[in-house]
Structures are given as C-alpha cells and as structure tokens.
Design goal:
Elements lengths: L1 H6 L4 H15 L2 H8 L3 H17 L12 E3 L5 E3 L5 E4 L3 H13 L7 E4 L3 H9 L4 E3 L6 H8 L2 E4 L6 H8 L8 E4 L6 H8 L4 E6 L9 E7 L5 H12 L2 E5 L5 H9 L1 H18 L4 H19 L13 H8 L5 H11 L2 H20 L1
Parallel strand pairs: 3-4, 3-6, 4-5, 6-7, 7-8, 9-10
Antiparallel strand pairs: 1-2, 8-9
The chain binds NADP nicotinamide-adenine-dinucleotide phosphate.
C-alpha cells in the first residue's frame, strides 16, 4: 500500500492514508503476539530502552557515574553494583563485558576478579586495572573466584564448560549468583552441574558491549530471584540494550544478536568494497559504510507517528528513501534479485541451529 502511494505519486492526503494503513499493518495481531511472547519486564525494558534511545538520539555514550550511579548506553541512570564480580575466562566476550562495566562505572577494577590461563590475558587485564587475577579455573582458579566474588560470570567457550562447572560446583553457596554467557549451555545443565538450589542466569550478550552498544538477552534459572534478574539487567543495561526472554528463545537470540555483529561486519565490508568499486578511496568508503549502518540502525529507534514501542518499522524507513525511478530503488532491486534478504534469514536460522547443536 505504501509503495503504491509513492509509486503512483499520490497527493499528501492519500500518502497520509497510506501511512495510516502501514501503521495498522505494523500493529497487526501477529506483531503484538511477538511482543507478548516476552515477559512484562522485557516489554518494559524494551520500551524504556527504545524510548530512551530515541530521546538521547544516541546508541553510544559512556557513563558519567559518580556517586554510585552511572548512565546506561541509553542514557538512563544506573546504580553501581556493590557486589564483587568474578569472571571465569576473560577472552573476547569476557573482556568486552569487563571493559563495558568499567566504562559505564557500574563496577570498579577493585571489585572485579578473573580466572585466566595465559600470561597475555593476565597482562591485558592488568592494563585495565584488574588486580585480582587467578589461574586456570580447573586448577584452583574457580575456588579463588568463588571466594572473592558473589556474582560469577562464566565466559569460557561452551566446550570448556563441563570441566569448569565441575571445578566450580563445590564452591558455590546460596549467596552466589552464577551468570553463564556460553552459547547453547542450558539452564538445566548449569543447575544440575552446580548443585541443588544454585542461582543461575543464562545470558547471550554480544561484543558491541565493549562500546556500550551491546544487545543482550537473558533468562532466569529456577532458583534465581527477581532481584537476581534486576541485578543482571542493571549490569547488561550498562553495556547496551538488554531484554528478558524465555529460555526456548535463546537459540534464536544467539543466531540473531550473538552472531549478528559478524553478519553486519561482512555487510559493512561489502558496502565499502562497493564504494571502492564505484571510485572512492578505501578509508573514505569504509567510514561512509560504517556510519551509514550505525545511522540507519539509529533511525529505527526514532519516534514518529508510525513507531511501535519506540521503533519505526524498517520497511517504512526503506520506502521513505526509495524515490520513484531513483538510485536507491535500483540498488534495492539488485539486492532482492541477489537473494540478500533470504541469505540473512538463512544465516540467522543456521546460527540458531548451531546453538541448538552445541547444547547436545
Ligand atoms: N565472541 C562473541 O561474540 C560471543 C557472543 C556471545 C556469547 N559468546 C559466548 O562467550 C563465551 C566466550 O567466547 P569468547 O569469544 O570470549 O571466547 P574466547 O575469546 O576464546 O575466551 C574464552 C576464554 O576462556 C579462557 N578459558 C578457557 N578455559 C579456561 C579455564 N579452565 N580457566 C580459565 N580460563 C579459561 C580461554 O583461555 P585460553 O585462551 O587459554 O584458551 C579464553 O581466554 C562462549 O561461551 C561464547 O558462546 C561469545
């Protein structure tokens, strides 16, 4: 309907009617159902984060956080978390979270400890001020982390998790909250490995957490309390957007936002290649490509008469920039005939299926 109005060059009244139709389409029951699948706290946090993102007009920004509070990536005030936080494994994702928490000032270097295996990792963490660094989690590191911290992030690869859980289990008490970021490792697996009553939260973060533009989802284990959920939400909100989901949705989250940054990097690289092919110097093309992707994503969180939960449907935004017989519609037609839309859908589904495979 929108496309028809634009293509036929209808006047403002007809165009407004077309937008109204598109708004109705955006509010179809199927779409509402998608949101209803989330918990009420998730809906609240989605709406709040989206609204805050649109108000601040920025997805970046660090915390100003003095006096026990800081700013989330969306600009909302966050309380510093007083509990000490331990990390078992601090590679790409673990370090991204640590750096993000420090940048947002929800924690401080003295309140964080890590269990790592090699000297390079230790050096990298010392450079960002972490003083309490313990050795291999399977050789005493777990015990030291459990003694130091009340919140323990498990950030090793999924394949290393069985032996890490086995080493950690004897040191877990009812005071501990264990947060696993390992793809495909279920709450049941974590709870069974850590023992009866263990408070467990499963999280799927992504690496843009490092620059406080992460997108994370979490689900609560059987013994995790509402306060545990709020605590995890505070930490993850400090490094970006965060939403609570049902565990059965975690593989889909892994395929979309967990693996998604890599899909977008490939897209940015390809756009830049296109710019070079069209005559731009490489650095100019790369900067324009990356800024275009970041700006377009921000537009989805802008607020207008068509927005739902603080988001504008990307199809509405696409139609607005595709003028009749213009350059953009030519490019879009090429993307559609190359099957790019289907390729993205299949990539997310394949990554989600791999997450399920890892769960065994
Ligand atoms: N990377 C992402 O984009 C992403 C996104 C969402 C979720 N995740 C999840 O995050 C987890 C970590 O992924 P990653 O990409 O950060 O992997 P990574 O860079 O390989 O980091 C894992 C770290 O754990 C360390 N480790 C392994 N066994 C250990 C032990 N027994 N004691 C102490 N440290 C140990 C590894 O040390 P060595 O280097 O010595 O092996 C490594 O530094 C995975 O479970 C993944 O599913 C990752």
């Amino acid at each position: 309907m929108r496309l028809l109005a634009a293509e036929q060059g209808l006047g403002p009244a007809a165009a407004a009617a077309a937008v109204a139709v598109s708004r109705q389409a955006w509010l179809l029951p199927g779409r509402q159902l998608q949101w209803a699948g989330l918990t009420s706290s998730a809906s609240r946090s989605a709406a709040a984060a989206a609204a805050a993102a649109s108000q601040s007009g920025s997805t970046g920004g660090g915390g100003s956080g003095s006096g026990g509070s800081s700013s989330s990536s969306s600009g909302a005030k966050l309380k510093a978390v007083p509990e000490r936080i331990g990390f078992i494994g601090a590679g790409q994702m673990g370090e991204a979270l640590i750096r993000g928490f420090l940048k947002a000032r929800v924690s401080s270097p003295g309140k964080i400890c890590c269990s790592v295996r090699d000297f390079d990792r230790q050096d990298a963490l010392e450079r960002i001020g972490i003083g309490s660094i313990f050795g291999d989690a399977t050789e005493g590191g777990s015990e030291e982390v459990a003694r130091f911290a009340r919140i323990i992030f498990l950030c090793t690869k999924p394949q290393a998790m069985p032996e890490v859980l086995e080493a950690l289990a004897p040191h877990i008490t009812p005071d501990h909250l264990v947060v696993s970021i390992a793809a495909g490792i279920t709450l049941v697996t974590l709870e069974e490995a850590l023992g009866e009553g263990a408070r467990v939260v499963r999280v799927m973060p992504n690496t843009p957490s490092l620059v406080q533009s992460g997108a994370s989802a979490f689900c609560l284990g059987r013994h995790a309390t509402q306060q545990d959920g709020e605590l995890v939400e505070t930490l993850l909100s400090s490094v970006g957007f965060c939403i609570q989901v049902q565990e059965k949705q975690m593989d889909a989250v892994t395929g979309l936002s967990g693996s998604g940054p890599a899909f977008v990097y490939l897209m940015i690289e390809a756009l830049a290649d296109g710019g070079v092919a069209a005559g731009l110097p490489r650095d100019t093309a790369l900067a324009l490509a990356a800024k275009t992707v970041a700006g377009a994503a921000q537009m989805v969180f802008s607020d207008d008469e068509t927005s739902v939960l603080g988001m504008v449907h990307p199809g509405v935004l696409k139609d607005r920039v595709a003028s009749p017989a213009g350059t953009t519609i030519e490019g879009l037609a090429e993307l559609e005939s190359s099957g790019v839309r289907g390729a993205f859908i299949r990539a997310v589904k394949r990554a989600a299926a791999r997450s399920k495979e890892l769960a065994g």
